[in-house]
Amino acid sequence: MNQAPATSLQDIVGHAKEYGFVFPSSEIYDGLQAVYDYGQNGVELKNNLKAAWWKAMTQLHDNIVGIDAAIFMHPLTWKASGHVDGFNDPMIDNKDSKKRYRADQLLEGKAEQYEAEGQAEKGKALLTEMGRLLSAEDLAGVRELIIAENIKCPVSGTANWTEVRQFNLMFSTQVGSVAEESNLIYLRPETAQGIFVNFLNVQKSGRMKIPFGIAQIGKAFRNEIVARQFTFRMREFEQMEMQFFIRPGTEMAWYESWKEARMKFHKAIGLPAEKLKFHDHDKLAHYANAAVDIEYQFPFGFREMEGIHSRTDFDLRNHQELSKKKQQYFDSDLDENGKPYGNYIPYVVETSVGADRLFLATFCNAYTVETVGEGDNVKERTYLKLHPALAPFKVAVLPLVKKDGLAEKAQAIANSLKSSFRTTYDDGAAIGKRYTRQDLIGTPFCIAVDYQTMEDDTVTIRHRDTMEQERVAISDLKEKIGYQVAIERILEAI
Fold it and tell me: Which CATH number describes the domain made up of 88-168?
């Protein structure tokens, strides 16, 4: 059994659509760029990933609780957070192709090219210079750097570039019946601010003591000009964020702790260590004093999947200044001098992972093409090697044939398992084809009901990854399968 060559993003996109994981949004009207719908299997996989994240945060930590804040927020929220004035991407157009690009992504692509050519130091120097120019808001310098590096438009093949301009990514709309400027609000570009404005509500109502965290899963919206790479960069997406409130001066220790904790989570859900890495930011966001990405090796290269940021007291302090409402915590713990720490605005360490990016990483990693058999019987086998707890269906029950009571027996077994984990029943086509159907959507276990079942109440369990089969009593199925598909298996590995 041999692994086939690496698959392309096109393979992933095709499989996702054909087997009910992801569809282009509004496809009957030719779709809407960078917007996708999750199909019947995709929504199950995504929900399972969200459940694993949620439990890892709120169930494994006594000092982390969850909220669900509204998408619409008072517009001053985004003034305080810096999004109104500074939530921009540097854009550049090619005059010949009329195509628009993010200037930083063009330079990052050149740096990746240098690294692939064995000139890693040259690529690192380029990213450092780009970070310096962007931090100084020297957009003319960014354009000059693109020209100096002889970066050309992939469509026109020319370097006939416009000036670099900043483009704000927030969607705006009006609330109420009159479209006046005073009624302007925004679709939230991140979920973090819903946590910050509820800091005191949660702290006081939950009697939370620092350090403590607030977790949230929710939709966010960004008007991405260059949206690409399937569900990696979308205009409507879902974030899983946790803001961890801490005493000033302890942020770097907590930052390192959460870096390692989040990496352990990704390994626990089945992403291999060799496809994960930390990438320190070359240019820090306006709110951060330290930032790192956890990157996954997608078919299009290593890209950000999760960010861990030390946000200092930027958010709470700005909300305090603009709202005139104190965002402080009284810390009764004693310092090294035996005195209470007293009132302060907490610092924050943030972990923020895109649910859609995590879905894509999990799907890409699970997509497996192998050659099986020997001699004239060699053939390709495709299956999704998902962690059993994440698979859309945990088990499929398949009667060998539809006669002699086997179908009724199989249906009864399926019904008995449904209350414990997601179960499907299939009696169409030859059983080999039914195994293949389940492999293609990642079902870890198939139960075959045959004539022996009618005699001794045993069935055959087929294991997806190895295709090995074992005989098991029907009475043992819930416990045997239930143990392996439980989300606890992920939580235990964190």
Answer: 3.30.40.230
Residue 91 marked as a ligand binder: no
pTM across the whole model:
0.86
User: What is the fold of 2-73+182-363?
Assistant: BirA Bifunctional Protein; domain 2 (3.30.930)
pLDDT, one tens digit per residue, over 428-485 is 899 999 999 999 999 999 999 999 999 999 999 999 999 999 999 999 999 999 999 9
CATH class for the domain made up of 387-492: alpha beta
Same fold, 2-73+182-363 and 88-168: no
Is 190 marked as a binding-site residue? yes
The answer to whether 232 is annotated as binding is: yes
How far apart CA 67 and CA 51 sit, in angstroms, is 14
Q: What angle do CA 363, 366, 367 make, to 5 degrees?
A: 85
Tell me if 351 is assigned to a ligand binding site: yes
Asked whether residue 350 is marked as a ligand-binding residue, the answer is yes
Q: What is the 3-state secondary structure (H, E, C) of the chain?
A: CEECCCCCHHHHHHHHHHCCCEEECCHHHCCCCCCEEECCCHHHHHHHHHHHHHHHHHCCCCCEEECCCCCECCCHHHHHCCHHHHCEEEEEEECCCCCEEEHHHHHHHHHHHHHHCCCHHHHHHHHHHHHHHHHCCCHHHHHHHHHHCCCCCCCCCCCCECCCEEEECCCEEECCCCCCHHHEEEECCCCHHHHHCCHHHHHHHCCCCCCEEEEEEEEEECCCCCCCCHHHCCCEEEEEEEEEEECCCCHHHHHHHHHHHHHHHHHHCCCCHHHEEEEECCCCCCCCCEEEEEEEEECCEEEEEEEEEEEECHHHHHHHHHHCCCCCEEEEEECCCCCEEEEECCEEEEEEEEHHHHHHHHHHHHEEEEEECCHHHCEEEEEECCCCCCCCCCEEEEECCCCCCHHHHHHHHHHHHCCCCCEEECCCCCHHHHHHHHHHHCCCEEEEECHHHHHHCEEEEEECCCCCEEEEEHHHHHHHHHHHHCCHHHHHCC
Domain map (residue ranges) of the chain: 2-73+182-363, 88-168, 387-492
* Digit-coded pLDDT (tens) for 124-181: 899 989 988 888 889 999 999 999 999 999 899 999 999 998 877 888 888 876 555 5
Alpha-carbon distance of 224 to 233, in angstroms, equals 8
Residue 165 is labelled as binding a ligand: no
Do the annotations mark residue 188 as ligand-binding? no
Residue 234 annotated in ligand binding: yes
Q: What is residue 179's predicted lDDT score, i.e. its pLDDT? A: 54
